[in-house]
Amino acid sequence: MPRIGYARVSTLDQDLDTQVARLKAEGCVIIRAEKVSGASREGRAELATVLEFLRPGDELVVTRLDRLGRDTRDVLNVVHEAEQRGASITVLDPHVSTRGEMGHVVLTVLGMVAQMERRFIKERQREGIARAKAAGAYTGGKRRLDRDQVRALHTAGHGPSAIAATLGCSRMQVYRILQGA
C-alpha cells in the first residue's frame, strides 16, 4: 500500500523541509508540497493532484490535520474524496487514521478545532491592525508595484498588457492603478 505525503505551508517565506523530512521518515514514497493558504481548497493544485491520483489501498499522510485545511467542511470533503477512491488518510500529530470508525470522529473534531484556530488568528490580526491604526503605526500593506512607473509606461503609449508583461504583474493590477489616477 503506497504512502503518499502531502505538505503545505501558508506563505512563501515559510519552510516545508520539516514536514517533508517527517513524511519521508514515515515511509512516504511520493511527497507533494505547496506554499498556499489552507483557508480553502481553491488554488491548491498539489492537493488536487494527490486526490486525483489516489488509488484503492493508498494512504494519504499529513503531519497535522491543518495541513489539509483550516475549514472543517474542506477537511471532511478531502476525507470523503479519498474514501471514494478507496484510500485512507493518516494524520501523524496526533496519530489518527480514517481506517477505523473512531478516526472519523477524531478528524471531525480536529477539523473543527483547526477552523476555530483560524478564526482566532484572524481575530488577533484584526485587533493588532486596529491597535496599530490607533497608534498611527499602520500604513497598510506594502505596495507591490511602482504606481508612477505604471503611469509613465501608459503615458509613453504602452497598453495594459504590455505594462503587465514588463512589470511582471497582472493586467488587473495595471487597470486598477490607471483607474485610480
TrEMBL record:
Residues 2-136 form the Resolvase/invertase-type recombinase catalytic domain. InterPro entries: Homeodomain-like_sf, Recombinase_CS, Resolv_N, Resolvase-like_N_sf, Resolvase_HTH_dom, SSR_resolvase. The keyword Zinc does not apply. The keyword Protein transport does not apply. Belongs to the site-specific recombinase resolvase family. The lineage of its organism: Bacteria, Pseudomonadati, Pseudomonadota, Alphaproteobacteria, Hyphomicrobiales. This is Resolvase. Pfam families: HTH_7 (PF02796), Resolvase (PF00239). The active site is at S10 (o-(5'-phospho-dna)-serine intermediate). It comes from Methylobacterium aquaticum. One of its GO terms (biological process) is DNA integration. Keywords: DNA integration, DNA recombination, DNA-binding. One of its GO terms (molecular function) is DNA binding.
